[in-house]
Amino acid sequence: MTSTFPNISISxxxxxxxxxxxxxxxxxxxxxxxxxxxxxxDVPQPFTEAAARHWITQYAPAERGSGHxxxxxxxxxxxQRLVGIVQLTRTDWRIRATELSYIVAPWARGEGYASEAxxxxxxxxxxxxxxxxxxxxxxxxxxxxxxVAQKIGCISEGVLRNACIVHVRMEDGTWTDMRTDFIVxxxxxxxxxxxxxxxxxxxxxxxxxxxx
Length: 212
Fold this sequence. Notes:
32% strand; 8-stranded mixed β-sheet; single chain; alpha+beta; disordered C terminus
């Protein structure tokens, strides 16, 4: 029998992580058309509202239903504005491992939202779901994503050479593919204690133990 993630909502001091909803279509489409997201992800460009609706109503439910993963909207607690997405993919229920990725809207960058959302997801996975390993993969030149991985306590395990495709905007406005390396990171349950202490000291984050 295939295991699946529950439809859950996770609350932090500043954020709510919840299932994607059709009301998110306009904000999701706007966010995914950002230049940085186009460069570092395989999201098709331009990203239309029809594509956003397909993601929300078909792709995300299919991923959860098949046991492959989970897509969560990351929203501000006070404004309910969509600040990003957290995705779990390539989930292996036998070894209790999954791959985590995150996307942050351009207007919300620099606020620590990616780290806060990723850490909250990790705590939920290790606590409620009894997972034993979270893996992250970052493009070799994506320093912002690497900083998030380091901030939540991930350990760099090595490099997958020439395993990643990023996208470069050409002078005529089109995008072209360019190959680069993946840096592989891991996070284990025992890595979290020191991470939580550091985040409280440096960022003012508090406990993420109150799940809705």
